[in-house]
């Protein structure tokens, strides 16, 4: 409940309309582009607000101080929230990729490894069989020629 009244607070707020300069820069966190919000200090003195210290009550000054404090906190929280959301999105993407690797790609590669191993073992057995047959033929030739 406003003690001073709406008109008094509106007059104090409109005494010095100001534009708050907010910069949004992008930084790279773990390969993710994250926007960061930066601004000059939001808090001002009573004179910087354009208010007459004699004409403004202590409650109005306190309200303005609290508003600026809350505004500064909102800007900090907004920057943190955006960072957490972006990192959360990247974690979800990475989780999907890991699941795809674990459930699709790795089992397929293991199957291909088994197939290649089986083919190589079969070729090795065929080579051993051929070598034995060639050896028997050579032994037959040498024993038949002698």
Automatic annotation (TrEMBL):
Residues 84-141 form a coiled coil. Transmembrane segments: none annotated. It comes from the Bacteria. GO terms for molecular function: proton-transporting ATPase activity, rotational mechanism. Gene3D superfamilies: 1.10.287.3240. Pfam families: ATP-synt_D. Keywords: Coiled coil, Ion transport, Transport. InterPro entries: V_ATPase_D (IPR002699). Belongs to the V-ATPase D subunit family. This is V-type ATP synthase subunit D.
